[in-house]
């Protein structure tokens, strides 16, 4: 029996992980569940999965916890993440919260010697060197949940001692793949939230439309697979069937294919190195039709260029990109700025926060705060902000 704690259990990834647990009750037992604010859904999950501990990072009075759920340990407030990641024993910790909040949780879980299943790409974007170093020290590799990184990880199972010469990181291209730069700049919230292939949380859906998601994934791949930005190539593939691929010296390219269904990479991380049923449709290549590929376009999607610039700049540049983007996406979702302003906000923050260090967790949190201050200063100057 594998015990698993899920940080961010009410989200898109967290709830799909619980579907896998539900399909395999003989294999998985839930240790902890945490959410930010969706208390009613969390209560339902606690009732069903009977964890040892649960918590809401946006605290509510314990008197609001239904009487039949009070027998477990409840932790309210930001401390809930730490208790779930490090204090309550579990074999695996799935970090599926949104944003830089995931970094501390990943470090806490590794410090406690837990196997980390990582959906939260922001932890690697901001603190990749610290996370990978700690994972190496405890001898438990980070198991990626992000579909592209899971695909690469799966392909690498066949690599033996051979180092890849490059990674092909696929991208659906999002809802604006064929739009002009001008059209993209004025896209509405509804248009940006309409992803052609994947159903995901709001933040990552907006990031998929701007391709900031792919920018974050280039950074995530850089740390997970220890390759420089120049060897990580974005390949736009609108059908989202090839989830990514790995290139080798002899010219061979290994790819992982499947229908777009996050339960597959989630379950692979949970059951690695075994494969278990996920409820996903098998891929039927006889009916899939044409698979097409095109290069990513940094002109219309400047996030792709910014990712490489930030990785090459080093220090806390990636943290600044991430923090400013989080602020800008929140402003866009709040109807306060145009879609094109997301990129302008990130560029402004990068210009105004150059050369910040990222030696320690504290450095990273300070760089994140500086990026958010710069982003907010820029956003407050925009018309209608
Ligand atoms: P979501 O918004 O659907 O869910 C996020 C969960 O985390 C919720 O339970 C929420 O209550 C909790 N949460 C959010 N912010 C928090 C905070 N600051 N502190 C504590 N808890 C918080 O998000 P999601 O789409 O499931 O994505 C989760 C992570 O996985 C993100 O980092 C995302 O980039 C990554 N990811 C998601 C997908 C996907 O298909 N949804 C795919 C790849 C990677
Ligand atoms: Mg992805």
Which features does this protein show?
globular; 12 strands; binds nicotinamide-adenine-dinucleotide; binds magnesium ion; 385 residues; five-stranded mixed beta sheet
Protein described:
By secondary structure, this protein is of the alpha/beta class. 48% of the residues are buried. Helix 9 (202-210) packs across helix 14 (317-333). The strands form 2 sheets. The protein has a 7-stranded parallel sheet, with helices on both faces. A 5-stranded mixed sheet has the order 11-10-8-9-12, with helices on one face. The protein is globular and about 55 Å long. Helices cover 46% and strands 15% of the residues. The protein contains 16 helices and 12 strands. Residues 8-14, 35-36, 38, 57, 81, 96-99, 101, 119-122, 146, 198, 200-201, 204, 262 line the site of nicotinamide-adenine-dinucleotide.
Task: Give a brief description.
It is built from 16 helices and twelve strands.
Order of helices and strands: EHEHEEHEHEHEHEHHHHEEEHHEHHHH
Q: Give the overall silhouette.
A: globular
Task: Specify the helix fraction band.
Answer: 40-55%
In terms of per-residue confidence, which ranges show pLDDT below 50 for 5 or more consecutive residues?
none
Please state roughly what percent of the residues sit in beta strands, choosing from under 5%, 5-15%, 15-25%, 25-35%, 35-45% or over 45%: 5-15%
Write down the Rg. Answer: 20 Å
Give the termini distance in whole angstroms: 52 Å
Bound molecule kinds, no repeats: nicotinamide-adenine-dinucleotide, magnesium ion
Average pLDDT confidence is: 97
Tally of separate helices: 16
> How would you write the strand order of the largest sheet?
4-3-2-1-5-6-7
Class derived from helix and strand content: alpha/beta
């Amino acid at each position: 029996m594998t015990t698993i704690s899920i940080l961010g259990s009410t989200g898109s990834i967290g709830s799909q992980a619980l579907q896998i647990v539900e399909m395999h009750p003989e294999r998985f037992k839930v240790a902890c569940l945490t959410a930010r604010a969706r208390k009613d859904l969390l209560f339902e999950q606690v009732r069903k999965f009977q964890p040892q501990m649960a918590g809401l990072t946006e605290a509510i009075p314990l008197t609001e916890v239904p009487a039949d759920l009070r027998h477990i340990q409840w932790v309210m407030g930001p401390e809930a993440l730490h208790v779930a990641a490090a204090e309550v024993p579990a074999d695996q910790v799935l970090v599926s919260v949104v944003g830089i909040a995931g970094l501390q949780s990943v470090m806490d879980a590794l410090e406690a010697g837990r196997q980390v299943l990582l959906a939260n790409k922001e932890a690697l974007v901001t603190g990749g060197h610290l996370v990978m170093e700690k994972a190496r020290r405890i001898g438990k590799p980070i198991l990626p949940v992000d579909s592209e990184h899971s695909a690469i990880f799966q392909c690498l199972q066949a690599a033996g001692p051979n180092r890849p010469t490059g990674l092909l990181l696929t991208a659906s291209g999002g809802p604006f793949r064929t739009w002009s730069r001008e059209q993209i700049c004025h896209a509405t919230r509804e248009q940006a939230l309409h992803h052609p292939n994947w159903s995901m949380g709001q933040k990552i859906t907006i990031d998929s439309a701007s391709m900031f998601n792919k920018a974050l994934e280039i950074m995530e791949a850089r740390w997970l697979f220890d390759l420089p930005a120049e060897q990580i190539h974005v390949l736009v593939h609108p059908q989202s069937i090839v989830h990514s691929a790995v290139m080798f010296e002899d010219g061979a390219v290994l790819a992982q294919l499947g229908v777009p269904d996050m339960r597959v990479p989630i379950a692979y991380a949970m059951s690695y190195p075994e494969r278990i049923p996920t409820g996903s449709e098998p891929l039927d290549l006889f009916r899939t039709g044409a698979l097409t590929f095109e290069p990513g376009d940094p002109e219309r999607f400047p996030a792709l260029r910014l990712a490489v610039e930030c990785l090459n700049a080093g220090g806390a540049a990636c943290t600044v990109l991430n923090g400013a983007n989080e602020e800008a996406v929140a402003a866009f979702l709040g109807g306060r700025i145009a879609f094109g302003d997301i990129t302008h906000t990130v560029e402004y923050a990068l210009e105004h926060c150059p050369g910040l260090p990222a030696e320690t967790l504290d450095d990273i949190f300070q760089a994140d705060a500086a990026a958010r201050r710069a982003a907010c200063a820029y956003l407050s100057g925009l018309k209608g902000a």
